[in-house]
Amino acid sequence: MEVYFWAFVVGGLICVIGQLLLDVGKFTPAHTMSILVVSGAVLGGLGLYGPLIDFAGAGATIPIASFGNSLFQGAMSEAETSGIIGILTGIFEITSAGISAAIIFGFLAALFFKPKG
Q1: Where are the domains of the chain?
Q2: What Cα–Cα distance (Å) separates residue 6 from each residue in 15, 39, 43, 55, 60?
Q3: Which Pfam families did the record assign (predicted)?
């Protein structure tokens, strides 16, 4: 039960940070999302995001900051085997399933729902 509590708290805090960036910082949604992705990558590079995932589980893996961590982890793991070109290929390799799913589900939603406007 404690795991769910910390997942809720950590995920909620990440969302609070995003909401504060929008409301107080007056950042656009695109800027806010970019800041969270870059923050996840920086925390991953400093070795702090892995322990956060171990501690909070889905509370740290579901928010957008986890995408930045995934980009960093993919780039570094592929760079170890393929060198400098691995940085680019690793980013695409590790995130391709999630991006593909987003495109497919977005397309399916567009087929079944009519936008208002």
Answers
A1: 2-112
A2: 14, 20, 19, 7, 10
A3: SpoVAC_SpoVAEB
